[in-house]
Amino acid sequence: MPCKCRFKNIKNAIKADVSSIEHGFFISEENIYMIKDYNVEWTPTINALYSITKFLNKEEKKYINSIIDRHIKMVYLTSNIGVKLNIGSDSGSKGIEHCNSFFEEINFFKKLGVDFKQT
What we know:
Layout: H1 4-15, E1 20-22, H2 29-37, E2 41-43, H3 46-50, H4 58-80, H5 100-112
Parallel strand pairs: 1-2
């Protein structure tokens, strides 16, 4: 379970009237409902975290994959309650190719059944 201080940081950002949360890898369910209530958009960048796994050893990959699995569950929940999701790629970062990373993120969204009217 991620540190509760990470949840608090997202909560504080939402309360500070941000318009969008980027990444949010340790977002909580409470934060997701706050995002909806405050009409905040979320750019989850699933592929950004997934793309680094090719540089990791077995133990590191296992840990990161557990974070990715949880993150995907939060994106799924978010899409089901009607929060606006944005496609973000982090292209240009190490191991994240321009253009391809955008389509990889779209593929994650498709696998989750995200309604593209929400994006």
